[in-house]
Design goal:
176 residues, 7 helices, single chain, mainly alpha, globular, 74% helix
């Protein structure tokens, strides 16, 4: 933890009560439960549409992100912030933020899948913008709830985005 981490955490945590309630709602959108159900639901829809390769890619990308997150948490074993009371229950190490990492990986992957169905580039940009906005809000919620240092969230965003980008690159294949 550095001084900037400390100052940002304290500033975001001390926001208005309504913001803390909104943060609790937003953080759920980055949970293993919600992201797992969303991934499985979309995978089932893809299977019904006989898009087995897309369904498998989505499941492997999400599962890989979950395994990557777990491995990094074990590797770094960074303690959670202890400056403030946690507004939600947490039991794993702090770095990286799993909510930030998994949100980036899953929502950006879903945006990539959906973008292929959209003809207009403006709609594709809007879709990716919404995925990024949702990912940012989920990560910010973790700091507002006092359960992550800002650097945990930033690391999660970077790692999750790189994972989604790498998996999309593998799915697309080499470009000659």
């Amino acid at each position: 933890m550095n001084e900037l981490d400390r100052q940002v955490l304290l500033a975001m945590y001390s926001g208005p009560r309504w913001l803390q309630h909104a943060a609790i709602d937003l953080t759920a959108l980055g949970s293993h439960t919600v992201l797992g159900l969303l991934t499985l639901s979309v995978a089932v829809l893809l299977l019904v549409e006989r898009r087995r390769a897309d369904a498998l890619w989505l499941i492997l990308t999400t599962t890989g992100a979950m395994l990557l997150n777990h491995g990094l948490k074990v590797l770094f074993s960074r303690p959670r912030p202890d400056l403030v009371d946690h507004l939600v229950v947490v039991v794993t190490p702090s770095f990286p933020s799993g909510h930030a990492l998994l949100s980036a990986a899953v929502y950006l992957t879903l945006a990539a899948l959906l973008a292929r169905e959209l003809a207009k580039q403006g709609l594709r940009r809007c879709l990716f913008g919404l995925a990024v906005l949702l990912t940012l809000l989920i990560g910010i919620s973790r700091v507002c709830l006092g359960v992550h240092w800002p650097s945990d969230v930033l690391g999660g965003w970077i790692i999750g985005s790189l994972w989604a980008w790498a998996c999309a690159g593998v799915r697309a294949g080499p470009r000659l």
